[in-house]
Write a structure and sequence with these properties.
This protein is α+β, with helices and mostly antiparallel strands. It has three domains: 124 residues, Rossmann fold (3-Layer(aba) Sandwich); 66 residues, ATP-grasp fold, A domain (Dna Ligase, domain 1, 2-Layer Sandwich); 124 residues, ATP-grasp fold, B domain (D-amino Acid Aminotransferase, Chain A, domain 1). Helix content is 29%, strand content 16%. The protein contains ten helices and 14 strands. Strands 9, 10, 11, 12, 13 and 14 form a six-stranded antiparallel sheet that branches. Strands 1-3-2-4 form a four-stranded mixed sheet, with helices on both faces. Strands 5-8-6-7 form a four-stranded antiparallel sheet, sandwiched between helices. Strand 2, helix 1 and strand 3 form a beta-alpha-beta unit. Helix 1 crosses helix 10. It starts with 15 loop residues before the first strand and ends in a 14-residue tail after the last helix.
Length: 373
């Protein structure tokens, strides 16, 4: 049973679901970090935005139940022992981690050490993708377009930033919009110094400073591995739906403050209505970034156009958000729906893709639960 405790906990709730009827029976383990995302203490409290809500955990569990037994294991201090004892056929990883700049890499690293198969990217890719500077360094080295940038570890380092204004700043290893606020767009040295000082103090990590990309923004959901990796329909972000005068950035306020279930913003267009040539360019740069970082199974790639209209990669999310409620504007499920996939089919497709990567074999399409009841 899932606890109703509103505070973070490291206790595993011990819930287990057994489903009979799959001709390709195996156990799948669902990773999470807490039984329930705590309530924010204010509109700008972003401490737990990376964690999954109960509804997402339950929806993924339901989708995985098609394949056999599903048990939940938390990514807590007891996870190594629990997964070693359980020896699951597959770990479905959705654990964002809790501490440190490499937190998203902890679960796949433990699984690799124990030789337990795991969905999604490996620990190296997850660590690199969470670190925005490392991501951009790799992209630049591989010739993948990304905005010019610099990393600042202390205020004195601003003297070495030689980029033209306007500039945009963000914490170097956060996700889900953490630390990306509307006032992070800086038009002068005074604004830049003030925002960098605030971010350095608040997040205790370096700050990425990059040239602001003034064009349209898109996000690209990718499924598959190697040459079989392909893009789902492109999602366009309509900044005209933001409050009047708001900075055209899909950051914390747009994700968690202004866009609410009772007052949803009509932020997204999927498939994006763009010329075919631009769509191919967006997909091309997204796939190039996917391969440059060594992503596996699935990933969401954020892309924005520069002043000349050329697509630039903003960042990658190899553990993409997968909120099941269509009203919550979760981009990967939205792209999957546009491609004709249900939420369950999306999650199950990730399992099929991972299983083929791991074993070299296709996992048979299971019969429905109703057909075998």
């Amino acid at each position: 049973m899932i606890t109703d405790n509103r505070k973070p906990t490291t206790e595993n709730d011990g819930s287990r679901l057994s489903v009979v009827g799959s001709p390709n029976f195996f156990s799948a383990y669902l990773l999470r970090i807490s039984p329930l995302k705590p309530e924010p203490t204010s509109n700008l409290d972003d401490a737990f935005v990376e964690w999954d809500d109960r509804s997402t955990i339950e929806a993924v569990e339901q989708a995985l139940s098609l394949f056999g037994d599903v048990a939940r294991l938390e990514a807590d201090v007891f996870f190594p022992q629990k997964v070693a004892l359980a020896r699951p056929h597959l770990v479905f990883n959705m654990a964002e981690g809790l501490h440190g700049p490499n937190r998203e890499a902890h679960v796949p690293a433990i699984c690799e050490f124990l030789n337990v198969p795991c969905t999604a990217s490996d620990s190296l890719t997850l660590a690199l993708a969470l670190h925005k500077t490392r991501t951009k360094q790799i992209l630049a080295q591989c010739g993948v377009a990304t905005a010019p940038f610099a990393e600042v570890t202390h205020l004195d380092g601003l003297a070495d930033v030689r980029l033209p204004y306007p500039l945009f700043v963000k914490p170097v290893h956060e996700g889900s919009g953490k630390g990306i606020f509307a006032n992070n767009l800086c038009h002068s040295p005074t604004e830049l110094r003030g925002r960098v000082a605030d971010l350095l103090e608040r997040y205790s990590q370096p700050v990425l400073v990059e040239s602001y990309l003034p064009g349209a923004e898109f996000t690209v959901a990718i499924l598959g591995n190697g040459p079989e990796a392909e893009c789902l329909p492109i999602v366009a972000i309509d900044f005209a739906a933001l409050p009047a005068g708001a900075t055209p950035v899909y950051g914390f306020e747009a994700k968690w403050v202004w866009d609410t279930p009772d007052r949803p913003l009509d932020l997204f267009e999927c498939p994006a209505r763009v010329p075919e040539s631009l769509a191919r360019e967006i997909e091309g740069v997204a796939l190039a970034a996917y391969h440059a970082l060594g992503c596996r199974d699935w990933c969401r790639v954020d892309v924005r156009l520069d002043a000349a209209g050329a697509p630039n990669v903003v960042e990658l999310n190899p553990l993409p958000g997968i909120i099941p409620d269509p009203n919550m504007n979760s981009c990967f499920p939205k792209a999957a729906r546009a491609a004709g996939m249900t939420y369950d089919e999306l999650i199950q497709e990730v399992v099929h893709i991972a299983w083929k990567r791991i074993t070299g074999l296709a996992l048979g399409r299971s019969r429905s639960r109703e057909a075998t009841a």
